[in-house]
């Protein structure tokens, strides 16, 4: 899925292409991803409106028009393209403007595209209960430490709780934990003050460096850039720090990748991560 660094760069690249452009037509190729809360026809309501702004809220991109909004939650496999000749069979939505064509593509059809008025945004699940923006000035070490108080979740589960931290996905949760040298199954309440401080710094550093890397890569808009990650989806490869084989664990139903040497488990575990294969 497009995660926070991806969405930051996607937004940056869409703004100069779309702001001020007028919608000439909208074609809903696959309505399964659409949530129409306008009370009318999307094609009619959005004809002739102009893009006013594009904002990111956690994992959502909010495209604002004069009196309407289109809010997209890409989820697992949603992606964007400005390629005018994108194959129709791969499309979910095509928006033709007096400038570029904006395509929304989603192979799994798990993403959601909401068409609605600004006053109806509360109807979008999770949109208004996002936690602290990890790229904002409000995300201070003091604020982070406050959020960790009395938390007994596994650290990876805590990192991916969007009601607390907005928003880390699977890839960057793994990368943050690797940078902080914390095993994904370590309960938050077992972290030392020093480990919590390093975890905060790792969130900041991993996100900042990843945004810069993706920005400089200049890959096609729909391409998910992941060649910079150190452990995510690198099971059985050598750790870039110590050479130990990278392992995979299941954490609350999600795959997590880590180095058992750099990120040692605390206490007894059901699996001995130092040997064998997960």
From TrEMBL:
Pfam families given in the database record: Fapy_DNA_glyco, H2TH, zf-FPG_IleRS
Limits of the Formamidopyrimidine-DNA glycosylase catalytic domain: 2-111
PROSITE patterns for the chain: FPG_CAT, ZF_FPG_2
Residue intervals of the FPG-type domain: 230-264
Organism: Leptospira yasudae
Reaction catalyzed: Hydrolysis of DNA containing ring-opened 7-methylguanine residues, releasing 2,6-diamino-4-hydroxy-5-(N-methyl)formamidopyrimidine
Keyword Zinc among record annotations: yes
UniProt key word Zinc-finger: yes
Stated name of the protein: DNA-formamidopyrimidine glycosylase
Entry similarity comment: Belongs to the FPG family.
InterPro entries per the UniProt record, alphabetical: FPG_cat, FPG_N, H2TH_FPG, Ribosomal_uS13-like_H2TH, Znf_DNA_glyclase/AP_lyase, Znf_FPG/IleRS
Cofactor: Zn(2+)
Keyword annotations: DNA damage, DNA repair, DNA-binding, Glycosidase, Hydrolase, Lyase, Metal-binding, Multifunctional enzyme, Zinc, Zinc-finger
